[in-house]
Amino acid sequence: MPHDHWVPPPVLLTVDLVILTLRESCLHVLLIERGIEPYQGTLALPGGFLGHDKEDLVTAAHRELAEEAGLGPDRLHLEQLGVYSAPDRDPRGRVVSVAYLAIAPRLPEPVAGTDASLACWIPVEQVLSGDVQLAFDHEQILTDGVDRAREKLERSALATAFCGPTFTISELQDVYEAVWGAPLDARNFYRKVQSVDGFIVPAGPSRKTDGGRPARLFRPGPGTTLHPPMIRPPSQPDRETA
């Protein structure tokens, strides 16, 4: 008995981007307002379909980064975050998304891409608290991206990706406080950072701070893994339930 002819199901492939940066010591994500259906007028993560059948995923991610944030590959940290493939995640059909986490310091004001009416930086907490609604399953993708960043700050040198070429320890502390959403003791933080071999290294002359005092400058060191790790403080209990 001949086998039935198998026809592969129609599946579309997209890339979505969780682009994080610090603005005024607050963790922000780049969002676009969709200019087309579905979810026209709703905020979403930047991203899009592959440009053609020979475009690989990393190339597509870099293309979207250039279109949405004006970022080249030499200005950011980029890593694959995960694959999102729920059958009903996109009303246009079966669409699988490969999400990427991108981190860079001092990002400029964005310019909306071809299918967006505007692009803007939004504090991450506004989305995670439910104050800002996102299209598709992008809230879950953002949550996963922030969780990835929070976890990697403990055991890797990812925090330096939020900083410029040189930075003060106070600016590095700002990164940890913004991403973890918790204040840190300055003396404790200084001691822990200095105890991690290869995390940061001195970078020449000092810089004057807002208070007028000079602060030593550092740059990323050769180490990529933190030994000992930087331990995130426990979450503060809700005041209503404490």
Overview of the molecule:
It is a single chain. With 242 residues, the chain is α+β, with helices and mostly antiparallel strands. It contains five helices and eleven strands, in the order E-E-E-E-H-E-E-E-H-H-H-H-E-E-E-E. A hairpin with an 8-residue loop joins strand 2 (26-34) and strand 3. The chain is elongated, with a radius of gyration of 20 Å. The N and C termini lie far apart (69 Å). Mean pLDDT is 89; it is low at 237-242.
Mean pLDDT comes to 89
Question: What amount of the residues lies in strands?
Answer: 25-35%
- Pairing-aware structural class of the strands and helices? alpha+beta
Number of helices: 5
Topology of this protein?
Blueprint: E1 12-23, E2 26-34, E3 43-44, E4 47-49, H1 57-69, E5 77-84, E6 95-103, E7 116-123, H2 124-128, H3 138-155, H4 169-180, H5 186-195, E8 200-202, E9 207-208, E10 214-215, E11 218-220
Parallel strand pairs: 1-6
Antiparallel strand pairs: 1-2, 1-4, 2-3, 2-7, 5-6, 8-11, 9-10
Quick summary of this structure?
With 242 residues, the chain is an alpha+beta fold. It is built from 5 helices and 11 strands, in the order ββββαβββααααββββ.
Main attributes?
seven-stranded mixed β-sheet; 242 residues; 5 helices; two-stranded antiparallel sheet; alpha+beta; disordered C terminus
